[in-house]
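Nucleoside-diphosphate-sugar epimerase (Pedobacter duraquae), 324 aa
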Amino acid sequence: MILITGATGFLGAELTHKLTNQGLRVCALKREHSVIPELLKGNSLIEWRIADINDFSALEDAFEGITQVYHCAAFISFDPKDKAKLLRINIEGTSNIVHLCLAGNQRLVHVSSVAALGDAKKGMQITENDHWEYSPNVHSYAISKYEGEMEVWRGIAEGLDAVIVNPSVIIGPGAGYSGSGAIFKLVKEGLAFYTKGATGIVDVQDVVKSMIALMNSSEHGQRFTISAENLHYKTFFAEIAKGFGVKAPAKEAKAWMLGIAWRGAKLASFFTGKPAALTSDAAKSSMNESLYSNDKITKTIGIQFKPLSQSIQEICTALINSRP
């Protein structure tokens, strides 16, 4: 039996949907008050099990009868205020998963992040062999994903049967206008600026395909970067604008402008009581040029990634046709 943590989230829901479409029964983990996505409602092949990954006792019960585990549950935030929550969920929660997989001899596919990879060697793309080094400028999300991944490596050293995937920015219509979908919302509403940075991007369906292929492979004790293409933000935003039929951002946002913007957003949050729309960490990340290699996953499972121009057009079309 297959267990999926974070099954109500963007990636977890897509993975659950894909596996049940293959006729497989799955146990999907959710917290007590989490809402089941429309994509999964009424699916008779899903057994919902109630547990929080930070509640070891409930999690232990949820592992009954399980042979394979996909660990998708995570918390994503670039707000410094969320540091404690990031560390609790992404590190302590993962430690619980690793402990139970070791105890029950379950095979694990752990979803890490490219944020847990190191910097590239000069003139090269970032690969699985580039190891993360602590820096005072690293944001808390990266620390939490790195330390969470270290829990899995600890488990592997103790006999855990596991592989790790490190996806880049995951896009798909299921994100709606939250998470990576927030970028689509900004461009649709007339975003005027772009930053000079660049990053890896991948369609959620390709991440799911890679995870399933790795789970069913003989690979063990390895990590794999899952990224389709590297895009500069200017190009990424222009593709989104094309998909929505709106004007593409045409002005480059300089570092000093972003500095003013995140400070203004922080000030505004004091008055509104809502999280800042832009944080210092997010502003810094948008200026970085992080380019990722997908050679290892391509050679291992033979995946052909969907062109991002096609993915972006499909997402824009789905968002236009979705209910408000």
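The radius of gyration is 19 Å. Residues 2-174+203-230+291-307 form a domain with the Rossmann fold fold (CATH 3.40.50.720). ok done for today
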